């Protein structure tokens, strides 16, 4: 399922300092990402490819259990994707509306805290991101009518992203969401959150367990996991690149 043309991956990324230097100075590269590219090699690898930091603790015969390079973008493509997500005068990122019924519109100018509604964010002219409430005891009472109906009937939906807490792994409520995606034949991706809160050993254990689950229990899930941290920003650039790719913005 790798996007065509995205084969210059992590190994060659760090063997091409000239390319990185050129990108860091390019006018087409955002200032924030240009600073990222100037980080020391090990810090840059940890930020862009967090799973490769824990992969080295695996025995060689176990490394094939992880699917780390199915989506393997070049540094140029990571920079292009970063531009898609960078708000500028010509590329506005706006909170648009809430849910599919007017009585769900939030009072706040933008949503805060636990998501109770479907919130729509328009990313320039590229695509719209929909932030949905999760399953569980904090889910809104009209979850089925609101979320399941949207996922089942929205024809231009490119991908569904399920957020799984990497500290505790897949829980009962996560299984419900996964079963829903499988039942509706939705292509989906598992994003592992809060990776900054775990030791390398604990994170590796969780990653292996979740990867085994994906390999043996799912059909519609993209094989590669995307670990991220909203605190350190680790993994965010790779996830952005994947979103830009599946929405046709890296073609």
From TrEMBL:
PROSITE patterns: G_ENGB. The gene is GTPBP8. One of its GO terms (molecular function) is GTP binding. It comes from the Eukaryota. Keywords: GTP-binding, Magnesium, Metal-binding, Nucleotide-binding. Pfam families: GTP_EFTU (PF00009). It comes from Theropithecus gelada. This is GTP-binding protein 8. Its cofactor is Mg(2+). GO terms for cellular component: mitochondrion. The keyword Magnesium applies.
